[in-house]
Amino acid sequence: MTTATATIPTTSTWQIDPTHTGVEFAVKHMMFSTVRGRFKDVKGTIERDEANPGSSTVTVEIAATSIDTGVADRDGHLRGADFFDVETYPLLTFRSKSISGAALKEGDRFQVTGDLTIRDKTAEVTLEGELEGIGKDPWGNTRAGLRVTGKIDRRDWGLQWNQALETGGILVGNDVKIEIQLQAVKA
Length: 187
Known about the structure:
The protein is mainly beta. The chain is 4% helix and 54% strand. The chain has an eight-stranded antiparallel β-barrel with strand order 1-4-5-7-8-9-10-11.
């Protein structure tokens, strides 16, 4: 006699909500002030392994053309060949390789390590995250809010352009601070 057992899904799929997600960055200008910007067009998926959160995966695509620092001339320069070269490399992508720490309840912290690709150059980064909450929206969808931060050296992706300053130092800092406020909807 064979007994059928129901299988309970051990993974859930979450779509990043682009209208409630912000990918922001900050970089030093002239060594003493900070310029901030963001990418407006972001999409992605989180495949959450409920039984083993460390086996979850994250994939993100960001349209390089959506960069916005609030200054049209600067945005044009960043879209050009000196920086992102959006005509040749329209996407920035992130694909997780590992997640440590369990994001099960509000306030839980985790680390996500993965491959960040910019201008067809891929380098591994580790980002720090915090689950800010999970709840139902007015339409019955389950949503999660996460905050993710990190720092990268733009030169690791071939973003070398700079100018030396007469007073010493460089025009554009090499370290880029990243802050992501992410909201995802359970599919």
